[in-house]
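Supplementary Data S3. Sequence and structure tokens for construct A.
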Amino acid sequence: MSKFKRTLITTALPYANGPIHIGHLAGVYVPADIYARYLRLKKEDVIMIGGSDEHGVPITIKAKNEGVTPQDIVDRYHEIIKESFQKLGISFDVYSRTSSEIHHETASEFFRKLYETGKLIEKTSEQYFDEENKQFLADRYIIGTCPKCGFEKAYGDQCESCGTSLSPTELINPTSTLSGNQPVLKETKHWYLPLDQYEPWLREWILEGHKEWKPNVYGQVKSWIDGGLQPRAVTRDLDWGVPVPVEGTEGKVLYVWFDAPIGYISATKELTPEWETYWKDPETRMLHFIGKDNIVFHCIIFPAMLKAEGTYNVPENVPANEFLNLENDKISTSRNWAVWLHEYLEEFPGKEDVLKYVLTANAPETKDNDFTWKDFQARNNNELVAVLGNFVNRALVLTQKYYEGVVPAAGELSDFDKETLASISTIKADVEKSLDNFRIREALKNAMDLARLGNKYLADEEPWKVIKTDPERVKTILNVCLQVTANLTICLEPFLPFSMDKLRGFLNLEKMDWERLGDAALLPVGHKVNTPELLFEKIEDSVIETQLQKLENTKKANEMATAKAAPAKENIEFDDFAKMDVRAGTVIECEKVAKTKKLLKLTIDTGIDKRTVVSGIAEYYQPEDLIGKQVSILVNLAPKSLKGIESQGMILCAENADGTLSIVSPDKKVKNGSEIR
């Protein structure tokens, strides 16, 4: 690290067609923020770059479905994402967007340089074209039958039923989602980055030169390179994105995978006029914090782009994480199976650090991991509350109780005192080693060891007992505890910034740099500390049950959305149907049937008479809500005794896929007794 004067941290640009969820946070933004805060505490020159990725087909599809423009979509989600990051305390130096003018200029200049220096190859190919809409079709605008499994609504790039990667021409009976017509093949010209030409350089640069990269990153890159690289299109036919800056290319834009990483450069330009220092000075190291779905782009494709351009640094490390699952199921935005950041911030006010702590403690660093609400609760209650919060509270409460909040002078230190204070520097070294090697989860555990150290020291020394026999000794004990507490504000600052700010308020202490960590005299004798509050609070079972129920509701909604109707029953003759006499009637009285959960007793004006019907709909309707409601009633059903009540007919209901019942009613008021045919 000593050969670098500064660090440029980039974070994967979230796609602006939906909010941020915990998978994004665990994979990219929380570890990047921790690392950036750590370097800032060390007084290093570091900037952290972020921004929204606002081009590409999914955004145009969402806009079309909602009847708005793509700009409307990205404006909406960019603001939601940016505000969520700010509230969580993700400390970007700049958070930009790829629809900005500075980005369009930067991406266009980058393409022009590659184009004019002959680094791109031009190829003509046949692609599907919608003749009615007069446009070439992106893969996601084409559906057809999967040649592998027969699924009839496979996309042009992938079958979501069997997971097979496809090309549009492999689909059986392809159809344009724009017009519903069968598209035709038509020639189109595009430019490609010849990745195969960079294969020898990539092999030497990564496989030989960066064996220290995380095994999940190195392994995926090696697999791609060993499999042989192919030219990759950098332009496509679409009307949303950065226009190709070459004459005669109307209707073509830069491929989103090409323009998005250039967003790191344009965002740095937006931040500082000294942007080239961070991108081109060999004494700057660049780190890409990303998820595993972006490894190939940031370790092979973007470096090849930078190498082709010729004046930029390539990344020094790409500490990518794997995926985070939710309650043993893959996070899915389309299925709404996620914990959304903006919703979490509303439902758990003041608990920003709790989420960051849990996501870090359970980070999917080298393999996929699972977030569960029960684990979230346990880590908060058993670690943040019971270890960190408990130690801090006891140390400060005892100081208030015995010394009116004034830091007492330490007497002669025992071996245990010295050992405890010396351990702070050992913990500091452990945290540094872990962070310097991008083992963020391990670093948090090491940092929390300082709270565990303080807790053990306090429990072993028992000042509340010693005060009765040796009050002078208690001064030393509490001085040691307070010095550990003050050191915590530095050690845990990268991980729990809101909480450490709160703790500094308790201690009446200014923020200190990393170099002060390990100092056993951060709080001078006579320093006045403030009356503490609870640093963390327990999360009750009811709070967790609410979140679990929310997910259960999502699961049911997904099942409903994908449920297929029961097959039709056997055919009947018209005469059989004609035997049923179904009339419109109005409920005039309704009450629950005693000692039952499901039954209601209704009195219905059928237009023929007033009759009693017992119906199993009590779980779905309140009696008072049904009075005055028109229903459809089978009036010639033979009477039947239910719970001692003679039921003279049947109310017609529709049974949903989840078993819930809805009364079938006329859509407008009709005369009671009207026949339903």
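Construct B, processed identically:
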Amino acid sequence: MTEHVRVAVIGSGFGGLGAAVRLRREGITDFVVLERAGSVGGTWRDNSYPGCACDVPSHLYSFSFAPNPDWPRTFSGQEHIRAYLEHVADSFGLRPHLRFDTEVLRTTWDAQELCWDIETTGGRYRADVVVSATGPLSDPKVPQIPGLDTFPGKVFHSARWDHDADLTGQRVAVVGTGASAIQIVPAVQPDVSRLTLFQRTPPWVMPRVDRAVSGAERALHRALPATARMRRGLLWGIRELQVQAFTKHPNQLGLVERLAKQNMARAIKDPALRARLTPDYRIGCKRILLSSTYYPALAQPNVDVVASGLSEIRGSTLVAADGTEAEADVIVFGTGFHVTDMPIAERVVGADGRTLAESWKDGMEALRGASAAGFPNWMTIIGPNTGLGNSSMILMIESQLAYMADYLRQLDLLAGSPGPGGTGRGRAALDARPSAVHAWNRRVQERMKRTVWNTGGCTSWYLDANGRNTTVWPGTTAEFRRATRRVDLAEYEVLRAPRVRPAAGAAAQEPVGGNEVTA
């Protein structure tokens, strides 16, 4: 049996739950949230490695419509963020809409009925609109290392942590030096016999000024919610002021580099190790990491830093690209995610029979980060060029939710507008015009040319296989909010379901006009 819904949301992380809340606030209850796992949380459910925490302040890394006065720390740990998302699901009545253990296998556009056919592991659905909120940090990327299958010990990615693996007294190899690795290393270093870190590129690391939030602060925020809003506003404003240095004046980041080097020098006294850990690119080109424990951990006698990527495995011997060898009992990959080649794109089939992955083979493009040409009534949350380098992604998500809400309002107006004989004109769909998508992305890429992400001299996960930055937004969150406040129908083609052919002698229906086309 196929269940037909107005909206199908894919994923139940911040984007999916945010979409569900917004739908209910818009008066839409005919929707489902399709989740491949058994609980909500998205990346904050999947990433449960030791030391996992957020590098955005708690009061900014939460929904504006669901403030939490009881964050226990200024930078929250994974368990607190996951508990917050469970609370959102409960307090906004989302449970009846959640479909757990329901992985989307294929989503195909039906041009005759103007809806999406969705095949999942939990049954089939039809939806007038699909909102993809799978997120870019959902599918781990593990490099193809020759000989990996010969390794006799445990191997796992940071986002799929093996909690049955006891690392106590083990020789552990950590591959990668991204945001996850710099949290894992200090968390496990005291327990392991030997830790070998394979570092292809050193990150810039700033101190993480984290502390417990006092009971008095929490009581104040509960009694006077305006104080929590002020705190959030201050955190937001500071980060908005930083944006120009990243997007227009990267040379102004030199002072930040000096602060990062001082942070390193305080913990790393060995000049040779300090040299291996010092980046040769402008700070901000890759994601700036926050930690006050990473460098002290690397300075411990049971830690080795190999300044080269892992290239081969021979049994329990790991060989770096520079020939360095290390023995290991456990390998932990902190090697990131499929960001510019999201697997969900292989499972979305558009109006012309091509998958979204095929449409994006030369690079991801979406109108205002949401709509792809040839994929009517399909929207993505945290789509192309919506990422941030210095602030909270929740701000971008909420802007996209406002765009989604207006998109649905426009569809209602189009479906309810008077047709022949004064009746409604039937179901409608919106398909982003290729010219509008390309124009939007030309403007984004033109602005990107001056940013530190393009000029800083590094290779990062912000760039796709063609060296094009399809990940980050080159402006402030306020700019993006203005750009996504309303749907401009001139940027879309209006599609309508085929009309019933009139009986003999009946008056013919008037042709579709303006920007509208018949599907």
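Confidence is low (pLDDT under 50) at residues 417-424, 500-514. Residues 393-416 form the longest helix (24 residues).
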